[in-house]
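User: Hi! I'm working on a homework problem where we have to compare a predicted structure to a textbook description. Could you give me the structure for the chain below?
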Amino acid sequence: MLNRIRTTIYARRRKSVILAALAAPCAGLLLFTGGVAPAQAEPPAPPSAAEATTMLGGLSEQAEGSSDGYSRDKFPHWTSQGDGCDTRETVLKRDGDGVETGSDCYPTSGSWTSPYDGGTWTQPSDIDIDHMVPLAEAWGSGAKEWTQDRRQAFANDLNVAQLLAVTDNVNQSKSDRDPAEWMPPKADYHCEYARMWIWVKDTYDMTVDSAEKGALTTALGTC
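Assistant: Happy to help. Predicted structure tokens:
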């Protein structure tokens, strides 16, 4: 029964990703011209609380692995997304409002509202692109055994809610901590945060430790 439920979930999410991929080239014709961007797309919508609960139940529960051998260099990130834009610039345009860019794709104006704390910023230097599941957390949850190509795909994934534009110092306070150790300052965002976290871990078949699973279950209870 669980396998049938998960199969249905995967099919639904896969359809959404495929539709988004088909739409992306058309959007790019407008978005990458160096002028005023049209209405910005939002990060991919996470699964519902019910779907996330099913996903969480399917994740392997085990103690987090050692950080031995970890390096951010083993997760090449901010790679090219085409049209002269790297991953960071792509997320800044996607998550911002009224973003204008120069010929190098770097924003010259616009504003960004951080979902973690509700802060609004007009300078891209005040914004970090957060990896929902931090790279070091991923390393201890299975990525240590991945190929370099898979780690690069994970660090630049725009098809799941792995990358978000957020207030820089809030992201720095999160650092590499999982939901048992850190949750966004905005309590009403905990439900969505948990759903995103679970979606990423499920997509990449990562493990969860018991404290992390407990915190995610609590956050889902606020949905």
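For your comparison, note the following. The two ends are 24 Å apart (CA to CA). Residues 1-40 have pLDDT under 50 and may be disordered. Good luck with the assignment!
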